[in-house]
Amino acid sequence: MKIFPTGTLKGMWVIMRRFLRSYPNDISERRKAGVLFKTTPDTAVAAERASVQQQGLITVEYPEVKLKPPENFRFVPFLVYEPVLDAAGKPIVNAATGKEEIGYERCTACGICAKVCPPQCIWIVRAVGDDGKPKPKAAEFYIDIDVCMNCGLCAEFCPFDAIKMDNDYELAGYERHINHVYDLDTLLKSTTYYESIKPTDYAAEEAARLAKEEAKAKKPAAAAKTATAAASAAKAATPTMKSNAETDEG
Amino acid sequence: MAVLSPEQTKPVEQSKAFDGESVAALLKEGVDGAVVSASSAGIVVQNDKLIATLQWLKQSPDLAYDYFNSVTAVDWPDKFEVVYHVSSTSRGGPPLALKVNLNDKENPVVDSAGSVYYGAIQQEREVYDFFGVKFAGHPNLRRIFMWEGFEGYPLRKSYKEAYYEQDRKPFETRWDQGHHIIIEDRVPWHDNVIYPKDFDPTTYKQIREIVRVAPNINEGDVKALKTQPVVVSIGPQHPSTHGVFRMNVTLDGETVMALEPIFGYLHRNHEKIGERNMYIMNTPFTDRLDYLAGMCMETGYVIGVEKLMGVKPPERAEYLRVIMNEFTRIVSHMFGGIGQVYSDLGAFFTPIVIYGLEERELIIDLFEAASGSRMMCNYMRFGGVWRDVPEGWLDIARELVDNRLPKVADEMEKYLVHNEIFDIRAKNIGVLPADLAVSYGVSGPMLRASGVKYDLRRADPYSIYDRFDFDVPVGANGDIYDRMFLRIKEIRESIKILRQALRDIPNGETMSIKKAYSFKTPKGEVYAHIEAPRGEFGWYLVSDNTTTPYRYHVRAGDFVNLATMEQMCVGHKIGDLVGVLGSVDIIMGSVDR
Amino acid sequence: MSFDKSAPLMSIESDDAWLDEQVKKKVWTGPLDQAIKMVDSLYNWGRRGSIWPMQFGLACCAIEMIAAGGGRFDIARFGSELFRPSPRQADLMIVAGTVTKKMVPAIVRLYNQMAEPKYVMAMGACASAGGPFKEGYNVVSGIDKFLPVDIYVPGCPPTPQALFYGFLMLHKKINGQSIRNAPWYQAEEHEAIPEPILGPDIFDPRRAVEIKQLLGNESEMEARYIRLAARAELKHHKEGEAAPKPAAAKPVAAKPAPKPVAPAVAKTPAEAKLEENKADANFAQQAAQHHAATAKDDAPETKAADDAAKNA
Questions:
Q1: Is the domain of C217 the same as that of C276?
Q2: Can you tell me the distance from the alpha carbon of C91 to that of C150, in angstroms, rounded to the nearest whole number?
Q3: In whole angstroms, what is the distance from residue B333 CA to residue B499 CA?
Q4: C52 touches chain B (CB under 8 A)
Q5: CA torsion through residues B17, B20, B25, B28, sign
Q6: Which residues 155-174 of chain A have a CB within 8 Å of chain C?
Q7: Do C62 and C126 share a domain, yes or no?
Q8: Which of A10, A91, B59, B391 is the most buried (most CB within 10 A)?
Q9: B169 vs A contacts (CB less than 8 Å)
């Protein structure tokens, strides 16, 4: 049995070295970002701290600085609608609710998302028209987010790009029976929002849609080819990976 | 102290292959009248010849099926089928399936295989708990996941739960006229419970559990101080049990005399839910099995279903799967395998959990960018992967693997493994000899630390692991020290594999078939096993040509590894017990499923 | 100095204007309310600044909880880095993971052993409402069937940042508490929550009589047992009454009244019975009475409060 614990001391030295180097590392990062004497957390510094090359401090101080989820992130689902555009092409915002006017709801109440959801947390009731025949529109649409397992299968299999996974994770609440069952109004969010959180996917889907429409205008045979090519291009388009961390101002 | 024999310096790789029919041919000479029928997949054996068959298979020099994979049962309308899988650690290769038909559904009895393989004992308790199949000669036939007094055998097809809606998903009540009704409002007690008709809760007395004391304990052993052995329940809420795991420990002072693990505190009915889910719905649930190594779980399940479907993924998808699996192995070893032991031995929350977590965060950032979630990735699909990785992902992965992770592994070795305190607390504690390890069906780093160079990525390769050049590190003693050091060596091997995969990954498609959410698989069954960070995880799937599996069983590596706890801990002190449990490296999601 | 009973407690007036001003600024001379407000803010600051969570990870959410305690998301910044395994030393029980029937007696016992002031956070979908495993035979649909929950954090698992958002909402809740109506300062004694018993299936001893009566009463069982099997029954039901309308006002979130399906029996008595039973069997409401002090957060205005909190 050893008398002098050299192994333990060597280990302690490894830790001490890490501790000591974190100070000059922090100072140089702050200087590079130009915030050497700022007392509140800074987004540039936090982005450095969350990157792969970081050797010193790695803390990202929520809620002042938030790590932005990457584009592929999935939390709870939401339904996409296309807003009403004014003459200039900008969406019209309803002054009372602050939400953009609903122009066209993409959801046709086909029920595929409800069928494929593993814990079956989606309830849909199809709207019925005046003639008594069912319309391709949802009258009721509920998602219980306390049963949702954030798997993304609903968004993956929706044929109309109507349901997508949200990036918003700040959903805690004091009560769950009413607040955590999202109804159609709560779920509907406009394509402006969808574009802001998932730009690559949105761009690819719009390109595929335009290509399909253009091809329909041309001959049917060419239409089929272009449409499938555009569809596969949309499937293959993947978002760019920014550095490990992109931060939001809190 | 075991010394590696010269034959064992090479990892076990598949030498001679035997399938069901060739085994049956040999068996016909070995044991008379045992075989009922045979196919390439496996053999069906007579009920009363089962033990003789298993013994002959174990001792036969050609076959040498010395390793017990799993035992489970299937509830058919006319019979119970008890299914055994056994493998050979000397020959490698896929396991052999043995079945026994129990035609009497009122009173199904079969001989216990515990006399041949120790590993059968714990798994047979699981079969009894779920199906009610009795095993004659079993030393301790009690419920293992559900509590004593629970009514019913849950995995029988006749057992319907309180929230039961339909036999298969998708439930029609969730769409098109479904309306949203909280499910609790549809059942009488507004809760997920069923009571039998003549139940009187006002006079019910909860059944007190039977506590097993060590068999050879007698007053003479503890006569010095006239002390009595004491039974202490460690867990289920305990900082060192890594989840809700409980052990009833019989102590003489501080020395452990007997130990019984008690499971079921996180039993989440994975298999029953799996039988109702369509195949694709099961993939997110497998993430939640071994939640620290989610991608590996998905891979195992997906490989099993792909075998049923007869589908192979394209090249790029295979490489992506290997990359994700190996990153997951690094995360799991750093945080779970190594970090938790040091946490238990006293390095409270420092440095390994903090430093291991640092690397985990960086790798998980990669997972989040590729699949959308840090832990529950849901990335593997039948026929490939969900999506291609984003641009720039491979570069960041290469930077991690080339520059950062090797330095971290070296640093870990420097400050952890050569530490004197760790030496004293870990060397020769919790020794598991190689022959016992094989008989118990222990797998993963625990088996390799005991000296058996058996790694499924070499012995029965799946996916494209046969293309990579990596070593299988092995330990000498089978104590805590060996298991820890082995896991660091395995991190280095994973880095080697990652380098090769990231160098060779081709461009191309990520799915070989069109994605479908509802498809039928042809009739048949499959047992797909992978080398997960915690051991061998196997998926036994039985398909009856519908959209959902008929029987879905998960063979969990750490559940089987835990059967050796008593063997390893008797004679040591409580402090050592905690260290041994950490070195087994359990995750309760897979132990209890 | 004259003693005027109607004047504030300590009114010192002199002919030095500067002295008066200094006294007014630096010496507290207000009535009792202000005193209580100061004590409240001091107590609340102390309580929210050092919430010690109990190390109570059940399942996958525990890993995210530990990651929240790790280097990148540092829970020590909120004063909570000390995860105490012993309930006697902990303030906050973060129920992280699926609550199973076998584990619930232990959870209730641990809750009883915690010293007040104590809070419960349901982290993850499983602890809030059973999550994806809700239909299992060994799963309890949410810990709020047995314990009063202060804050629910949805997600499977919630990322550490989502968990911190939950922490901040808990801080807001604590800021709103007052010594006047906090339950642990009241005069009457609080009974411990009785531990559920593991019989043929789990049951709460407070409901034992109700269960016995219900099981013995055939017609009652018939009326109350609602089958989900046939869409035909649902359609039949839908023809018989108007389509359900979602609730009107947006702040009170839309949730239509539950629609029971009675097999060919007049729905009104069954529906009435159902409402009755919901009131009887709703443990969350019983528990809410226990935490009457924070009742203003449990009221229907909660959605507005949540929205306000989000925008704050």
A1: yes
A2: 12
A3: 18
A4: no
A5: positive
A6: 169-174
A7: yes
A8: A91
A9: 115, 118, 120
- If you measure CA to CA, which chain C residue comes closest to B154? C137
Look at residue C7 and tell me if it is in a domain: no
Instruction: Measure the CA–CA gap between B9 and B453, rounded to whole angstroms.
Output: 8
What local confidence, expressed as pLDDT, does residue C29 receive? 57
CB within 8 Å: C155 and A75 = yes
User: Hey, what amino acid is at A229?
Assistant: A
- Give me the CATH topology for the region B270-583+587-591: Cytochrome-c3 Hydrogenase; chain B (1.10.645)
ipTM rounded to 2 decimals: 0.89
Please list the ranges in chain B whose pLDDT falls under 70: 1-9, 210, 212-226, 349-352
A153 touches chain C (CB under 8 A): no
Q: Which residues of B touch A151 (CB under 8 A)?
A: 283-284, 376, 378
Helix (H) or strand (E) holding A80: strand A77-83
C43 within domain boundaries: no
Give the residue among A189, A177, A172 at the shortest CA–CA distance from A77: A189
Residue length of chain C: 312
Task: Find the helix packing angle between B315-331 and B294-309, rounded to 10°.
Answer: 150
Tell me where in chain B the CATH 1.10.645.10 domain(s) lie. 270-583+587-591
Between chains, do B362 and A5 touch, taking CB under 8 Å as contact? no
Comparing CA positions, the residue from C222, C235, C68, C94 lying closest to residue C151 is C94
Residue holding tokens 């009887």? C280
Asked if residue C73 belongs to a domain, the reply is yes
Q: What is the mean pLDDT of chain B?
A: 86
Residue B446 · residue B483 · CB < 8 Å: yes
Q: Are the C-beta atoms of residues A25 and A57 closer than 8 Å to each other?
A: yes
Q: Which one of B183, B192, B270, B344 would you mutate to disrupt binding with C, by most C Cβ within 10 Å of its Cβ?
A: B192
Contact A146 C300 (CB under 8 A): no
Query: What pLDDT, on a 0 to 100 scale, did the predictor assign at position A231?
Result: 54
Tell me which residues of chain C, numbers 77 to 136, contact chain B at a CB-CB cutoff of 8 Å.
85, 97-98, 100, 102-103, 106, 110, 130, 132-136
Domain around C149: 51-194
Residue B193 backbone phi and psi in degrees, to 5: -130, 150
Q: What is the pLDDT of residue B536?
A: 92
Q: For A41-53, write each residue's pLDDT tens digit.
A: 888 888 888 888 8
B8-136, what's its fold? Beta Polymerase; domain 2 (3.30.460)
Owner of token pair 């010293």: C115
Q: For the segment A117-155, what is each residue's pLDDT rounded down to a tens digit? A: 999 999 888 888 888 888 888 888 999 999 999 999 999
Nearest alpha-carbon partner for B131 in B80, B196, B78, B69: B80
pLDDT in tens, C33-77: 777 888 888 988 998 888 999 878 899 999 898 888 888 888 888
Write the burial class of residue A120 (CB in 10 Å: 0-12 exposed, 13-18 middle, 19+ buried): buried
Alpha helices, DSSP H, located in A111-169 = 112-116, 153-157
Taking 70 as the pLDDT cut, the residues of chain C under it are: 1-15, 23-24, 27-30, 220-312
Of the pLDDT bands very low, low, confident and very high (cuts 50, 70, 90), residue A239 is: low
Strand ranges across the sheet with B42-45 = B35-38, B42-45, B96-102, B80-87, B67-75
Name the residue among B358, B372, B396 with its Cβ closest to that of A72: B372
pLDDT at residue A216 greater than cutoff 50? yes
Element (H, E) at C169: helix C160-175
Cβ contact, residue pair A239, B376, below 8 Å: no
Distance CA B358, CA A50 (A): 10
**Structural domains in chain C (count):** 2
Domain with CATH 3.30.460.80 in chain B: 8-136
C245 is a domain residue: no
Q: What pLDDT is stored for residue B351 in this prediction?
A: 62
